[in-house]
TrEMBL record:
PANTHER family: HYDROLASE C777.06C-RELATED, HYDROLASE C777.06C-RELATED-RELATED. The lineage of its organism: Bacteria, Bacillati, Bacillota, Bacilli, Bacillales. Gene3D superfamilies: Ribonuclease Z/Hydroxyacylglutathione hydrolase-like. It holds the Pfam family Anti-Pycsar_Apyc1. SUPFAM superfamilies: Metallo-hydrolase/oxidoreductase. InterPro entries: Metallo-B-lactamas (IPR001279), RibonucZ/Hydroxyglut_hydro (IPR036866). Counteracts the endogenous Pycsar antiviral defense system. Phosphodiesterase that enables metal-dependent hydrolysis of host cyclic nucleotide Pycsar defense signals such as cCMP and cUMP. Residues 14-212 form the Metallo-beta-lactamase domain. This is Ribonuclease Z. It catalyses: 3',5'-cyclic CMP + H2O = CMP + H(+); 3',5'-cyclic UMP + H2O = UMP + H(+).
């Protein structure tokens, strides 16, 4: 995990991840703190082959301009950009265009090898990594996706509580691990609260790990039962 913090956490980097396969490295969300986190890890940006985006908030896409510029002008290449089709237009028009537009560079594919994903469709992104975007509720009328990775790992990104989805993932689809955003103190508003997650049955809770938490997280350590915290700069196998 490049980070496990909430959007405004100061002691944790943004909840972004590096996913390693045998041959590639993919970044899952590239927020404002992503490059600082990579630097802290001693991980060169040139090691990144691909990026996958969940939604347009700075803690998830705020590092995309730096990624695009450095890849293009420092390394002379275009990383793969996997993005659900409905998000591709808004990603350029409402987020990246302001910084990246210059005469001859006027679209996402001037900076990235763009691969459009279809919501609800499982696609192999790179050898050994398949992703299915699931449109999930975060902020009313905001396009936002969670991902099922390799059929048995669910990454919520930012999600308001959706117990039926979690139940279906576990009971019908055999998802074994859920990395879920967790707002420690209510109200959740645009995220899922710890209290909401604690209301789930044990067989679901025991698959959940908590991420996207605020700076008060140390006060909750050891108090979240079977749902333990995901830690930044730790590696997890799935
Ligand atoms: N309607 C909204 C919109 C945003 N927010 C806060 O801003 C953050 C943006 O990044 P996030 O990780 O989605 O978390 C959001 C809320 O903290 C919020 O609390 N209510
Ligand atoms: Zn967020
Ligand atoms: Zn968000």
């Amino acid at each position: 995990m490049l980070g496990t913090g909430s959007a405004f956490a100061k002691t944790y980097f943004n909840t972004n991840a590096l996913i390693y396969t045998d041959s590639h490295t993919l970044m899952l969300d590239c927020g404002t703190t992503a490059h600082q986190s990579l630097h802290r890890l001693g991980k060169p940006l040139s090691d990144i082959d691909a990026v996958l985006i969940s939604h347009i908030h700075a803690d998830h896409v705020g590092g995309m301009e730096e990624l695009a510029f450095r890849m293009k002008f420092a390394f002379g290449r275009k990383p793969l950009l996997f993005v659900p089709e409905p998000l591709a237009g808004p990603l350029w028009e409402t987020s990246l265009k302001g910084g990246l537009l210059q005469d001859e560079f006027a679209a996402l594919d001037d900076y990235f090898e763009v691969r459009l994903l279809q919501p609800g469709v499982r696609t192999e992104l790179i050898p050994g990594l398949a992703a299915e975007p699931i449109r999930t509720a975060h902020i009313p009328n905001k396009i936002s996706y969670s991902y099922v990775l390799n059929d048995d790992f669910f990454y919520s990104a930012d999600l308001t509580f959706h117990p039926e989805l979690l139940r279906a993932l576990v009971e019908e689809r055999g998802v074994r691990t859920i990395f879920h955003d967790c707002q420690l103190k209510p109200p959740g508003a645009v995220h899922t609260t710890l209290k909401e997650l604690e209301s789930l049955p044990l067989h679901i809770r025991e698959r959940i790990r908590l991420m996207h938490y605020d700076d008060t997280k140390p006060q909750y350590e050891g108090k979240t039962g079977v749902m333990t915290f995901v830690e930044q700069h730790e590696r997890y196998r799935f």
